[in-house]
Amino acid sequence: MTRSNRLVRYGGAVFAFFLVAVCARELRVQERAPNDPYLYSKGSWKQGYQDQWGHWKIGLTPTGLGKSAWDIENGEKNPVIVAVIDTGLDYVHPDIAKKNVWINAKEIPGNGVDDDKNGFVDDVIGWNFIDNDNNPWDNDGHGTFTSGIIAATINNKEGIAGINRGVKIMPIRALNFMGRGAASHMAKALVYAADNGARVINISIEQLEMEKSKILQWAVDYAYNKGALIVVAAGNQGHDTATISPSGLEHVITVAATDHADKRMGFSNWGKYIKISAPGEEILSLRARRTDLLVMAGSKEYTAGRAIVGPEAKYYHASGTSFASPFVAGVASLILAKNPKLTAEQVERMLLMSADDVEAPGWDQLTGYGRLNARKALEADPDYFLYTELHRVAPGRDGGRTVVQVFGTATGSHWGDYHIEIGQGENPTNWRRAGQITGGQVKDNLLGTLTQGDFGGGGKWTVRLVAQDKKGLTRESRSTLTLQ
Amino acid sequence: MIWKVRSSALAVLFLSLLFVLPALAGTAPPSPQQVNADIKAKATPDNQGMTGLDKDIGATIRDLDRYMTRALADLKRQTQDAKKKADDAAKAADKAKTAADKCKTAADKTALDALIKDAEKKQKEAQDAKDKKDKTAQDLNNKVDDTVKAVENGMQEMKEQLSKASEKILSDAKAAGLKPEDWSVATPLANIAATQQALDKAVDKANKEGEFKNGKLDTTNEGMKSKLDGTAVKARQAIRKETEASDPSESLKKAKDALDDAKKAAENCPPRVAAGGAKGPAGVKGKQVQETTAFMNTEQGSNVCTDNAEDAKKLGGDVIADGPAGTISHVQDSPQTVEKRAKEKGVKPCWIEINFCVIFTPLTAYRGHDHAAHVDSGRGQHDHDAPDPSWDWGVTPPDTVIRWEAK
């Protein structure tokens, strides 16, 4: 073979290879999965980022490249029941598949008999506690929006992608057409969800009172003891969640909202109850038929229809911690789909310990352990945790002198120890160990005390809690204070 | 009412269809052609079809519109009355508070007591007026819901009756010995199927929301049920607008706070502290977070925890659930009444609390704001055109400031 022949022959081969590569790439683009158009579009309401930016941010990206959380688990093999306690569901929305709505198989529809003897007649897909009937239809839009984030049909070439392809949404209506309800409705809804097999319960609702709701705590404990993971929105007042229910209750995962730059949204409530954060800015989800929830919300600046997206008005965009919470609930359901035997406590560990640290280093009261990361959560060790939370520093008395008391949590599965450090300024580069620690594992209690001598001067200081376990892993949490 | 009439019309259709069946049950069954002829003479999808559906819903919409026009005027009057009374109560309470702050002598105390009494009376009147208008608003909302439900139930009933009639004809025809091959498009079942198709078509037409053209919803071909839904949404918005246009809640809150302050100050009226000493506490409360938009507590009363369901029932409770931590129930009465009843019945509740009005995350303009207009939304202090929301927007946790005490 002459040199020129070889060149022609090899050149042809290279060209053919190039053609195949290009075609393969084209095919990949055409066959991108999932194929829901809004997952790939941007600027549908003139925003400068992707329409479903939240999915991309937490790792729900196109499959087949080995990087998506959906490559690990898409939820189809083991359908998980997720109860959404809200304003109901538009269960005939074209982007909610029938297979993604919970069906009570023990109930014979429409026979007027409580076949499964659960106290509710003909509760085929859930219950409406406002009208006390079996039709949890959504007249407001909030419930359909939150449900859509979790359960919108994936890979149907239409609209948005939800999070879990096999999820069974159990719509429970506890709020009326204006999004109002009572604590008793909520309690009934929680009990219903737990009694009927919900593994995850999403509550994007809050009660603004000066005291925590006892009945809600009772109902949360009831569901928790039955094995349900309860995910709640932090709330939208920019306040401490301490007096708000259910975000300030025990046995819930309280979710704050972050924006597309991983900053806490200004309205997102804060405090020691914040466990994790998730996208809550301009989220795109389903619009329930004949609803415009922002009109009903009473915002004087909102003009009707402005948040509706798409030529058929089937979608809607809105911001709030209400919409951050379903991201966490959805990913929790994926974790349970991957391993149904996990307990709620294990799922919580996986979610918190795998979150991407945003805002202040370590746990902070704005975003908790960080922003949700679906892929890392699915791969996390269910038995590992190292909780390190500096909740607050406050003046106290010790033997007649004023001291600075440090409160928080330091506990872990492979527990080692913890210590307290201080540094000058808001972002210290030099730290030194200080104070007297309580020692052992501490849960939401006094971690230690610092005296005036520990600081050596006034001004701005940062206190840092550092915990270390036997695996050699450390976590930290910080709080700043001004000394005068 | 109209939906009962509609159902009756359908009943005529089904009865007429079933009328021919006794003949099928005889010893010599008539020919399918004869059966069909009988049915055609009595009822066809055309003469008893669903052409009246739109007309009926249209009448319902007109009825609802007429009802709402009158009712909204009444609600407006009640709301304005409640607001006026609440404002009067706030003024009276403020007067009492000012008098309490200035109280120095026994004569001042006598005058103060009268002012407090007057303020209490006005507060009660204002509260009654507010309760009345809240109830009216709730009744109106129920009326809207009931109207929509009646239509939906009516449509559902029509479908169910058709289905039942179909099953009945099939079973009777089989019982009468008609063979499947005798069934043709001209048989009773086919007539039912045609009626069913006509109904489905009519329902689809009624439900049609309109068509999106050039980014806008063109409602030229909007179905009547969809129009009814739209009317219901507008009615609810109108109720809300009327209710909140002159919302007395804030004035009532002011009245309550001022009256509480006045009463607290009255305890030290005239001042018991020696001359030259500090005056008693005015009892001014700090600003508290409050929900300003919630106006409808749909289920009032109390929630109670008792040791068991039996105790809950003794208190008149509707049991919600039993668990290791006791039984929780909802009672229609206030916590004070429940507490009193518990003492009378010898029941020791673990706790009693008011049935708080739960609201979902309060919606602000920022929930669905125009992003182009608010590029810095959600980050710290937020520049925004007035009016600002009532909540402290973009609040971050307060800085901890610690002052060392002098040794």
Care to describe what's here?
The complex is a heterodimer of chains A (484) and B (407). Chain A is of the alpha/beta class. Helix content of chain A is 24%, strand content 25%. In chain A, the strands form 5 sheets. Chain A has a 7-stranded parallel sheet with strand order 2-3-1-5-7-9-10, sandwiched between helices. A 4-stranded antiparallel sheet of chain A has the order 14-15-19-18. Chain A has a 4-stranded antiparallel sheet with strand order 17-16-20-21, with no helix packed on it. The relative contact order of chain A is 0.11. Helix content of chain B is 57%, strand content 8%. In chain B, helix 4 (52-102) runs antiparallel to helix 5. Chain B is elongated, with a radius of gyration of 33 Å. In chain B, strand 4 (318-323) and strand 5 form a beta hairpin. The termini of chain B are far apart. Chains A and B meet through strand 4, helix 5, strand 6, helix 6 and helix 7 of A and helix 7, strand 4, strand 5, strand 7 and strand 8 of B. Strand 4 of chain A pairs antiparallel with strand 7 of chain B.
